[in-house]
Design a protein that fits this description.
Number of strands: 4
Largest sheet: 4 strands, antiparallel
Structural class: alpha+beta
Helix content: 40-55%
Order of helices and strands: HHHHHHHEEEE
Shape: elongated
Strand content: 5-15%
Length: about 210
């Protein structure tokens, strides 16, 4: 007895619904936006300049400033200007006060001792080298940018512009999705039903006997 394709419940279950299609489109758009933002950062390394310190003054202090030489701090100060230095110092002080008042909500550990001193950081929060500190800072700022958390950046100029599309990356992702979703044209029965020494296979045209 042959089974019609239209009556095969397994094939019907695999048919995509409009809801699934909408979800796929939404996911594709999210991936496209993320890739455009990542491409923008790749082509604009100046985004990670010292002016980004204000995004997280405490993290910058812990990962970058602690490794700077006197000459490097002076050069950074000249690039910021007097007002920029004051703003960074003020925000850093306010962030430390907030971290001490609410240690559970702070991203970095700051604890005050009985005599008012600030305890050293946890070991896992301290980078082992200047290179590691720079890498960690850049990674944190990259993730912040990709999430859309930079309130001073006009994301629309990147998210809505095809010039930031990474065609090679999109083609690779589409190829991966295609092969992940592709199924064989026939499915062996789970119990591999055998009738008279013949294995039944359900295919696109019904049941084929071998």
């Amino acid at each position: 007895m042959h089974t019609s394709v239209g009556q095969d419940p397994d094939l019907m279950a695999r048919a995509p619904s409009s809801h699934d299609s909408a979800q796929q489109l939404e996911r594709g758009q999210r991936i496209r936006v993320k890739n455009r933002r990542k491409r923008y950062l790749e082509l604009h390394p100046e985004y990670f300049s010292s002016s980004l310190e204000l995004a997280d003054p405490l993290l910058y202090d812990r990962l970058i400033r602690r490794f700077q030489s006197t000459a490097e701090r002076e050069a950074e100060g000249r690039s910021k200007g007097y007002s920029g230095i004051l703003e960074a110092d003020l925000m850093r002080s306010e962030a430390k006060v907030a971290a001490l008042a609410n240690p559970s909500s702070a991203t970095l550990t700051y604890k005050r001792g009985p005599n008012g001193e600030i305890y050293p950081e946890d070991k896992d929060e301290v980078p082992n080298s200047k290179e590691e500190g720079e890498w960690r800072w850049k990674k944190e700022m990259e993730m912040r940018f990709l999430r859309g958390d930079d309130n001073d950046f006009e994301y629309r100029i990147v998210d809505d512009d095809e010039q930031w599309d990474n065609k090679a990356e999109e083609e690779r992702e589409e190829e991966e999705k295609y092969f992940a979703a592709e199924e064989p044209s026939w499915i062996l029965d789970e119990d591999e039903n055998t009738l008279n020494g013949r294995t039944e296979r359900k295919g696109e045209t019904g049941v084929l006997d071998y």
